[in-house]
Amino acid sequence: MRLGQTSAIYFVSKLVGSALGFLATIYFARELGEVVLGQYALVLVLVTWLGAAGKLGFSSAITKRISEGNDPEKFIGAGIVVMSVLISTMSLLVIIFRSQINAYVGAPIAGFVVLLLFVTLYKSFVNASLKGNHLVHVDAILSSTKQVVRAIIQILLVVVGFGLSGMLWGYAVAYIITATLGLWILGLRPAIPQKHHVVSLFNYAKFSWLGTMRSRTFDSVDIAVLGVFVTQGFVGIYSVAWSLSKFLDIFGSAISTTLFPEMSKISAEKSAHAAAGLTEDALTYGGLILIPGLVGAYFLGDRLMLIYGEAFVAGAEVLTLLIAALLIYTYNKQLLNTLNAIDRPNLAFRVNAVFIIINVILNFVLIWQIGWVGAAIATLVSASIGLVFAFYYTQKLVPFSIPYAEIMRQWVAALSMGLMIFIARRTTEANFTWLDSYNTAFIIVLVALGATVYFTILLGISTRFRTTIKNNLPFDIQLLN
């Protein structure tokens, strides 16, 4: 299968689950308000960080050791032992500090944190085992299924009167259902491990844990720090802006996920230099969706946030900053993907360490000094610095060229789209004042117009984009020739 088709399939599968989650968030925002959403976001942040501490790279280690084919049943058993100890430790800490946790979130949710911590690590273990058994496609399907099941259960519970607790129960039940389904598909047969199996997991995990922490830092450290300095309402608005930004990153994630095994294979068979072409492809298309998304957020951010409710309009500026940070971070992620693929995780480790330290420090300083907008600025600045380091290390080992021309064509198409949206919005708002009552429909029309303009112009000015589309379609389109 062509890489473009593989990326597209991954993208579509993720898009389905994320789209339903996006719609569900709109309902929760309107029904429950920004304060409950802020409390929900803080609970998930706590679970994310406690879960990361409860895994410490062991998910990657389990995948690696099982995939090698030597004593897979015993490595599964070793994984169960290690993760059981870690989850018990984390749960005990939650129980001991339950008063502080409840105060931080603003609701009595310590029991839910323990429950969600268990189901999260349970699913993480199943996912790692599926990947180790080369069932990545099953893991992807279950991931999308989890999002759909979670949204449906949460909506049903909120409809019947459960607020924050309904959302948390929906989260837990969805994880249990999909993890158990994965366990059934896997046909798990663990065996009693020996000491060297556990030691082997530790030896791998001690190098892989920082990559997980880098991802967790980018995804949630700003929300975690916001919980210390601002009200749950501001956290709720920020979390909505962040989820809307992440929705645009699905395609970039699809590219890095698809290209990693190909880079790894070609660099192992030939040399690190052989991965240059794939690195250039990753950089070429990493911002394909995020670039027009950034321009669109600049011109439509207030109306996009209005979909969630009037209180959320305050997050329009944050939305633009977060999408800009995500665009830079996506390029950073593509380069780190190359470093890991050519078997230089030590260099990726250095980049991750720099990013994490700067991100945490800037979040505390900027949120303290300028408020919640400082969190978005901290994310943007730390992502930019991380990109500089990632470029420096990757360029030393892989002689790739930055595809300036293609990226500029994407910007030309996006800015042309932005101009069209600006004119259409100003003209329509000036002549049809009743549009405020139909904001969602208005946004859908403007977004559809923008997408049409962007891709039409890009197809017209980029031969490489036309060729990529043509080569990955199962049928021939005369206009692309």
TrEMBL record:
User: Where does this polypeptide localize?
Assistant: Cell membrane
Identify the InterPro entries for this entry. Poly_Biosynth_Transport, Polysacc_synth
Main localisation = membrane
Query: In what way does this protein cross or attach to the membrane?
Result: Multi-pass membrane protein
Keyword vocabulary terms for this entry: Cell membrane, Membrane, Transmembrane, Transmembrane helix
Asked if Ribosomal protein is a keyword of the record, the answer is no
GO cellular component, alphabetical, reads: plasma membrane
- Ranges annotated as spanning the membrane: 7-29, 35-54, 75-97, 103-126, 221-238, 282-300, 306-329, 349-370, 376-395, 407-425, 437-461
* Any Pfam family matching the protein: Polysacc_synt
The protein depicted here goes by the name Oligosaccharide flippase family protein
Q: Which organism is it from?
A: Natronocalculus amylovorans
